[in-house]
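Q: What structure does this chain adopt?
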Amino acid sequence: MFGHVVRTTVIAAVAAGAVAGAPGAASAAAKACAVGKWTMVKHSFSAKGEGYDFTGTGGKGVRLTVGKKSLSWDFRGSKRLVSQGTRSGEKVAMWSRYDGRLRVPASFKGNKKGLLTADVRKAKGDATARTGKVGAKRPDATYPLAPNYRKGKPETIALGSGSFTCTGRSLHLVLATKSATDSSRFDTWFRRG
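A:
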């Protein structure tokens, strides 16, 4: 989203097995609570480490379909994600806009609370991201998501792994990581439908 700053934290989580996971790491089928169609109402993240400190919000309107063995995101019509912070002592403020669709295999443990494991190495779809500096109308970069996911570089807005809490009307996904050099937290809230 903004270089490799947050991706570095996410990749560290991948290496620890928190994001990409090993195939079959959570083999239980999803319970009825999580399965269905959801619309993102809020997404926020924070990531801090050696040389960087970022926060971000946005992405309202992303649609997520949770199947028994997969996650599918539809970014069409969703709002921008805006991030700000510092990198190597310099202030940075960027936006990201997503479009298209993305699908990854996934598995669950738990019913109304539990763990979600997405195998991002098998991502498919035509989803793209455009990124640019806040205040600029034109993007600095445009790139497809699926190839990056397959390399272990998921976007913060659609990590797909971590813990979840589900009610009949809402779904909350959380991925939090911490090491000796960095920490991060990614929260995404959805409503049913």
